[in-house]
Amino acid sequence: MKDFFVSYNSADKTWAEWIAWVLEEHGYTVVIQAWDFRPGGNFILDMQRAAEESHRTIMVLSEDYLKAKYTQPEWAAAFKQDPTAEERRLIPIRVAKCKPTGMLAPLVYVDLVDKAEAEAEALVLAALQARAKPATRPSFPGGTPTKERVVQKKAAFPQSKRVTWQIVLDYTLQNTFDHFRKIDSVVAELKQLSDDKRLEEVGKTGESGSTVVTLKGTEAGFSIIESLSNTGQLPEICGLLVEQVRLVSNLGEFAPAPAPLPSKPASPAMTPPKTELTPKERLALSRQITGLTVQEFNDLLLLLEPPAGLIPPPSTSQGDRTFALLSWAQSTTGCGLAAVQAALQDILP
Questions:
Q1: What are the pLDDT digits (tens) for 302-341?
Q2: CB 3.0 to 4.6 Å from 221: which of 170, 194, 324, 342, for a disulfide?
Q3: Cα separations in angstroms, 233 against 227, 229, 244, 325
Q4: 2-127 placed in CATH 1.10.3720.10
Q5: 162-248 is classed in which CATH architecture?
């Protein structure tokens, strides 16, 4: 079962896709005609499955939606399942000025008309919650003048300071997908060891045969990893020898380290992996992927692991599948085009 079926009129397609993207970006599963009803399918049956196999239906409300004939069975199916709205199976989101009538009139809708993007996103996500309790305590409604109001100050919650630090590994970094995956596994392991859920990688470079991974996280998390390293409890991580753990100051200089790096044979400095492509390079990458066989394309998906259901099936044109893959790779939740290039090199002879 999917979380949401987005019901909309073609005139509001851009709004529908924006809403669907926001939902999927925050972990919800979505069915939407623009992405999931593919050439060769039966539109009516696809619509029936979408309505039956989704927990809730989102109506993208506008005058065009209310006047359209094909949208009526879509919201009617959800209305029939929950006529008293106790389960909130039908969530109207108004994107243009209109006035619902009839059975839709009593339903409370989310109003995105004339809202900025950040506010609109917050309203959509808030509408999905079971309660609308505010995050902060409401002011006292007794009418006391502001200057006489007694405000009891609470102790501030102790937030751990964010710091930038590095771990140096005995590992020669290369611009390949397997190497990127290896560093990802190191970061995941560090996140568990430090109990720092906010730990994130901000860069990786090669230095004389070693790999330097730069991270940003809480000061408490860094202290745990530093202590494990200094006491010899972290000789390796994910099968890679740990040479040093060091703090980076605000000025970009390394803080004094307790012990120097072990000496190792000199080797040419390595160029950091390229993370951005020029428009010409992106076009060349798109054409290269479009020219893959179905098996090669599926191998590429196996390596990159995009979210399930995001990439159209093999029956769809290769160009559409390529576009979906690269759009995801360039998104905030995607793997990046450099990782796509690296994976492509791994599967091609």
A1: 888 888 777 888 887 888 888 888 887 887 777 888 888 8
A2: 194
A3: 8, 6, 12, 41
A4: no
A5: 2-Layer Sandwich (3.30)
